UniProtKB/TrEMBL annotation:
This is 3-hydroxybutyryl-CoA dehydrogenase. Residues 188-283 form the 3-hydroxyacyl-CoA dehydrogenase C-terminal domain. The keyword Oxidoreductase applies. Pathway: Lipid metabolism; butanoate metabolism. It comes from Actinoallomurus spadix. Belongs to the 3-hydroxyacyl-CoA dehydrogenase family. The chain holds residues 1 to 284 of 566 of the full protein. Keywords: Oxidoreductase.
């Protein structure tokens, strides 16, 4: 069924949305990227140009290929541009009321047979799905940061999802050359449910003065991981990290996921990691 996918929409062109739009366009699909206003759209275009520009610098893409990829991505500030998409992936900030509003709008403008997907990492796909009149067409499609590099994509079904809608997304993920895993609508899905106990403990360890941030990171990096846990949280965003821990804690009451106090304090202070220039580390 995914072979018939031609046009895919992406709503929200922040770090994740822009990365997803790039991955889709790289696979030859026509992409429609939608943002709320001109300034956000300009930032989204900047993400796309920087990320593909980096690949050109590394000799992974020619300038012509970069232009072809960017040329397949139409940018718009209007939801109406999504009207003829076969699938739309929502990647707006992790706030349930906002996501529900976006899905209500998608339900209005998208074709009845279009599949609506959310890239949520911490919210319930079911709660998002029931804001539409087609919850059976709603799935989760969870990419990892940075989306152009990370191979894993979690595909989430709810108790309402039609198998055919799930198959559209499973086949798409295969077409993208990613590793797709399918999971029910449980907080943290598979990867975050396992990863965030560890990340949260690393934050608590740093908070208690157990070791310096550099040594905590160096220890885990030397085990063969690509990044230490505090550097990784800075990449993910401390706001997203806090939300993921809270969601898993709410569902499981597992104390390993009770957010380390330092996480909450840093989020309140606006120290969100790389995206704000400061988290556990400072960035230029
Ligand atoms: N966008 C596009 N490409 C990127 C990129 C980005 N933001 N960051 C790095 N890359 C590419 C580079 O261009 C490079 O590509 P080539 O090999 O083709 O030249 C490759 O990735 C390696 O990059 P670098 O050499 O600059 O740096 P590195 O070797 O240190 O790798 C990393 C950087 C890929 C981010 C690596 O450190 C890594 O894999 N870190 C772990 C990331 C991770 O675990 N992410 C999951 C977080 S959890 C999550 O996202 C889920 C959630 O819901 C919160």
């Amino acid at each position: 069924m995914a072979a018939s996918l031609n046009k895919v929409g992406v709503v929200g062109l922040g770090t994740m949305g822009a990365g997803i739009a790039e991955v889709l366009a790289r696979s030859g699909l026509s992409v429609v990227g939608v943002e709320v206003g001109d300034e956000a759209l300009r930032r989204g275009r900047g993400h796309l140009e920087r990320s593909t520009g980096r690949a050109v610098k590394r000799g992974r893409l020619s300038v012509d290929e970069q232009q072809a990829i960017l040329g397949r991505i139409e940018l718009s500030t209007s939801f109406g541009a999504l009207g003829d998409c076969d699938l739309v992936v929502e990647a707006v900030p992790e706030q349930l009321p906002l996501k529900r509003r976006v899905f209500e709008q998608l339900d209005e403008v998208c074709r009845a047979d279009a599949v609506l997907a959310t890239n949520t990492s911490s919210l319930s796909v079911t709660e998002i799905a029931v804001s539409t009149n087609r919850p059976e067409q709603v799935v989760g499609v969870h990419f990892f940061n940075p989306a152009p590099v990370m191979r894993l994509v979690e595909i989430i079904h709810t108790v309402l999802t039609r198998p055919e809608a799930l198959a559209v997304v499973q086949e798409l993920v295969e077409r993208l050359g990613k590793v797709g895993v399918t999971v029910g609508d449980r907080a943290g899905f598979i990867a975050n449910r396992l990863l965030f106990g560890y990340l949260n403990q690393a934050a608590a360890m740093y908070d208690s003065g157990h070791a310096s941030r550099e040594d905590i990171d160096a220890a885990m990096k030397a085990t063969g991981l690509p990044m230490g846990p505090l550097t990784l949280m800075d990449l993910i965003g401390l706001d997203v990290s806090l939300e993921v821990c809270e969601a898993i804690y709410r569902e499981t009451r597992d104390r390993r996921h009770a957010p380390a106090p330092i996480l909450r304090q840093m989020v309140t202070a606006g120290l969100l990691g790389r995206k704000t220039g400061r988290g556990f580390y400072a960035y230029d």
